[in-house]
Amino acid sequence: MKIRLLLVDDHAVVRSGLRMLLEGEEDVQIVGEAGMASEAINLTPDLRPDVILMDIGLPDISGIDATRQIKDLWPDTAIVALTIHEDEEYFFKMLEAGASGYVPKRAAPEELLTAIRVAASGEVYLYPSLAKLLVKDYLMQDQIDGEIRALDGLTGRQQEVLALLAEGVTNAEIAERLHISPKTVASHRENIMQKLNLHSRTELVKYALRKGLIQL
Fold first, then answer.
1. Contact yes or no for 21/90 (Cβ under 8 A)
2. How far apart are the two ends of the chain, measured CA to CA in Å?
3. Which of 130, 123, 151, 125 is nearest to 211 (CA)?
4. How far apart are CA 5 and CA 209, in angstroms?
5. 8 A C-beta contact, residue 43 and residue 113
6. Would you say the pTM of this structure is higher than 0.85?
7. Which candidate, 129, 118, 106, 107, places its Cα nearest to that of 51?
8. CA dihedral 113, 115, 116, 118 (to 10 degrees)
9. Which residues contact 122 (CB under 8 A, 6 or more apart)?
10. 33-49: per-residue pLDDT in tens?
11. pLDDT digits over 97-154, tens only?
């Protein structure tokens, strides 16, 4: 089944280049293009893309605001930021808005394709240099909070499931590794998110990093 992709960038040349790059991929289908955020928001319910490649610097509203609006209305649509901005401000705001990936425009084509496929599978992709910002942010927060303590009442099994989820392992793979059913994994995941008051995979990854359950 092909990944339905919507391209959002205010530069027609960039969109044309992306189309040329991606149209040759057997598992990707470009279903539309938009030059403005409002256009992307309006197209999403009709085109039903699996993934939206979203620029941040758009002429009407920012890609950050567009991401927030789209995720509020269509939470199953994954959004990958493809942008020239590599500083912390944009990076964290885009993740908080609900993006499933963040890739700089200088990245190699293989990185972009990986980000699209990872986002389409329901996971989070972070470009390596930007993932370091996430680690740095939470190491600093640890220092400030003095927070290396018990894992907030999670059971041993829940800690195992949490670590695997944060590493991007699918529910089916977790079930196989831990010799439990996928339904049990889903139940553990729901209980973990409720117990820790987490609302997205990005928050789950941040928590696991902060607690030392995973490393990048």
1. no
2. 31
3. 151
4. 30
5. no
6. no
7. 118
8. 120
9. 78, 100, 170, 201
10. 999 999 999 999 999 99
11. 999 988 988 889 999 999 999 999 998 888 776 665 555 555 455 544 444 444 667 7
The strand pairing partners of 80, in sequence order, are: 53, 101
The SS3 call for residue 32 is: strand
Strands in 125-126's sheet, in edge-to-edge order, are 28-34, 3-8, 51-54, 78-83, 101-104, 125-126
Kindly state the tokens that stand for 179.
Answer: 């010799």
In sequence order, the β-bridge partners of residue 32 are 6
What domains appear along the chain, each with residue ranges and CATH number? 3-131 (3.40.50.2300), 148-210 (1.10.10.10)
| Whether 85 contacts 57, CB under 8 Å | yes
> Residue 177 carries which side chain, given as an amino acid letter?
R
